[in-house]
Amino acid sequence: MKVLVLGGDGFCGWPTSLHLSRRGHDVVIADNFARRAADAELGAESLTPIASLDTRLAAWHEMGGRRIGFCELNVAEDYDELAGLLLELQPDAVVHFAEQRAAPYSMKSAWHKRYTVSNNLNATNNVLAAIVDTGVDSHVVHLGTMGVYGYTAAGMTIPEGYVNVRIAADDGSDVEQEILYPTNPGSIYHMTKSQDQLLFAFYNKNDGVRVTDLHQGIVWGTQTVETELDERLINRFDYDGDYGTVLNRFLMQAAIGYPLTVHGTGGQTRAFIHIRDSVRCIDLAIEHPPVPGQRVRIFNQMTETHRVIELARLVGRLTGATVDLLENPRNEAAENELQVDNRQFLELGLEPTTLEEGLLREVTEIAERYGERCDRSKIPCRSRWTRDRQAAGRPIPAEEPAQPAPDAEPVPR
Amino acid sequence: MKVLVLGGDGFCGWPTSLHLSRRGHDVVIADNFARRAADAELGAESLTPIASLDTRLAAWHEMGGRRIGFCELNVAEDYDELAGLLLELQPDAVVHFAEQRAAPYSMKSAWHKRYTVSNNLNATNNVLAAIVDTGVDSHVVHLGTMGVYGYTAAGMTIPEGYVNVRIAADDGSDVEQEILYPTNPGSIYHMTKSQDQLLFAFYNKNDGVRVTDLHQGIVWGTQTVETELDERLINRFDYDGDYGTVLNRFLMQAAIGYPLTVHGTGGQTRAFIHIRDSVRCIDLAIEHPPVPGQRVRIFNQMTETHRVIELARLVGRLTGATVDLLENPRNEAAENELQVDNRQFLELGLEPTTLEEGLLREVTEIAERYGERCDRSKIPCRSRWTRDRQAAGRPIPAEEPAQPAPDAEPVPR
Fold first, then answer.
1. How far apart are CA B177 and CA B168, in angstroms?
2. Whole-number pLDDT of residue B155
3. What residue in B sits closest to A157 (Cα-Cα)?
4. What strands, in cross-sheet order, belong to the sheet with A304-307?
5. Which residues of B touch A164 (CB under 8 A)?
6. B38 and chain A: CB distance < 8 Å anywhere?
7. Minimum-distance CB partner of B191 among A175, A179, A198
8. Do B12 and B97 meet the contact criterion of CB atoms below 8 Å apart?
9. Per-residue pLDDT at B359
10. B281 contact partners, CB below 8 Å, separation of at least 6
11. Which has more confidence, B33 or A359?
């Protein structure tokens, strides 16, 4: 199939593009290097030394991979270019990663909230409007998040997007309806993904746009079969307080002898998926598109749930790292249970890569190999979620980079 | 109280500003004249000859009204100015009308979809982010729409924003939860108001921002006690296919001898409110703010429901006008029932202005007085809701104005 990957230079986008290419799809990447620009803004960097996209694409071809095309564009702003690309490529699927994807980053300041809302919602709306406008019947595969559900489900398994509810009718009888699971996002970032759901539902209902929305858990690991082939293909490894995600941060902290940063009690239970499974899931979604007229299809893209403190203890046992309980910057429940339904991907043939020591060690080895590249000052999370906490005498530390103007020049790649 | 009215030059914003001023509030209007610019874009005009805002404000003061301040700014774009205005004014309430508010306009083209999404969501997010950012504890009063609910409620009264549902838990018992009424918007415009709800819920939960969201019915009428005082204070009267709303369009069509344009069977039941009640409701909401810590308060701002065909017949009986059944451009149910709960405003003392002949005649008289200003070519609705209909050989008529570039110069006021 022909696949357009929006945001194909990022942490999920890059290994997905390679995996789809190896699976025989014709892949074109569109990206504006916003993720690399955020690194420059934050003074942070991937722990692994990622090559420029030009180098990555050349290396992939050199290693025998199919040619992957590239178009530099801002999906949220360059509508005409996006529509032109759709008309030119007529892709079977558009994989939409072109959103700001870090919750702490989205809460850093008013500028970051505004950037996240404007970028994410305009990007999604542009993709959908362009599909209707051009008449190109691409299947949209969107990376959403488990976080849209919130983490307060009392005694029930989180279903795949839709839930049956009963409502009392005026005559005392029950009305039964299937509705989108009511969202309870915990950050501006998560909120935009909840708002994306309404965009998908509308364009699907009104225009029949075919959409698969993947509610992804926290991704861990860094390498896939494809990115391991050559060092120039290596994937990002984020460890900073904004873009680093919990398990990868623990593994990297252990590798460099930094105490594991647990926010709050660590009683939070979250859903996880290894990057290798993430790219497989996207391929499965593309190869099994919704039929015409089908409502928005929602898959929970996760393979297991874990309590954060238990992950920290596991990493501690494997590596001897100590655990540091820090004040939680997030406005969230200290503890929660979490059961998640992920039947649909299992039925499509996904064989989950679960947390096991071998893979944990592999990640730790990568972290050790590039440990000298770590800037320890970037490890703490400095976002303050609420105005109360911002006002409570915790000024933003001096090393915090100044916020860029909205029209700041992008970083050269 | 000090009240900042965002979008205070528009159809609801202007009479609201005058009413609040007469009620003794200190009012400042912020507006970017987007509504006047849309008139220029569409080649349409208010049937009533509206004065420039400067003239309006001077006339109000001349008639003995309190001074109303004005700041020209784009709420969706001029964040720093908006935050500065909040700091300077420290308003008790911010009334947020600064959104593109026409469903057909939002469906005209990809450009109009994109403008509506970007403008409406960035405006709402900017207001909320600025309140958190500045620490000014203003009560946000937002104009939402009954349309977020959709019109498919089967046998149940539409509640005021929240609904109790029961969900089956894993152990077979029932979990009861109060959730936001699941939305089912029928246009991009209505969808943005559904997305606004998620913004309000998030900022309320995370930062304690106090919000009243008014789910307004279709407004009819044009004049209020205040706008009637002088012709320079006259309110807008929209009759074109984009911004004109159903009952006002019928009354104006009757006045000029144009057949009443009923879309589809006219079996659609909708909620209505007279502009006089609309401005009173906003004053009631401001004078009874939510307490600190209160969740987002949602009121249904409507006073009665009517079936469209019955309204057409009523106007026909009063005026002798004929009824024209036209193909419905909207992708909506041909017929629906509608019961709506509006107890909260009644409890706050609202005395509904219901549809009666006297008021209908008053509107018709205004339409007759300015009938010579009518451009009959602007009456038909030319928006095509879906790509199927757009593709079905109905090209956009030649008189359709070219869509403006996003950075088109605003129309001088």
1. 11
2. 81
3. B170
4. A218-220, A269-274, A304-307
5. 167-168
6. no
7. A198
8. yes
9. 85
10. B214, B273, B299, B301, B345, B350
11. B33
Q: Which carries the bigger pLDDT value, residue A412 or residue B125?
A: B125
Residues 231-290 of A with CB under 8 A from B: none
**How many contacts, defined by CB atoms under 8 Å, are there between A and B?**
146
Instruction: Among B118, B167, B206, select the one facing A163 at the smallest CB separation.
Output: B167
Which residues in chain A land under pLDDT 50?
Answer: 392-413
What number is the average pLDDT over the span B327-335? 92
- What ipTM, to 2 d.p.? 0.94
Sequence length of chain B is: 413
Give me B238's structure tokens.
């929209």
Mean pLDDT of B315-327: 94
* Cβ-Cβ contacts under 8 Å for B22 (sequence gap 6 or more): B65, B66, B225, B226
**How many angstroms separate the Cα of A400 from the Cα of each of A102, A243, A375?**
17, 15, 14
Sheet with B162-168, side-by-side order of all strands: A174-180, A162-168, B162-168, B174-180
* Structure-token pair, residue B94: 């911010």
A 116-155 → B contacts, CB under 8 A? 117-118, 121-122, 125-126, 129-130, 132-133, 135, 154-155
Residue linked to tokens 């409007």? A129
pTM: 0.94
Beta-carbon count within 10 A of B293 CB = 8
Q: Which two tokens stand for residue B236?
A: 């807008």
- Report pLDDT digits (tens) over B159-169: 999 999 999 99
What length does chain A have? 413
Task: Report in angstroms the alpha-carbon separations of A138 from A90, A399, B100, B212.
Answer: 7, 45, 29, 40
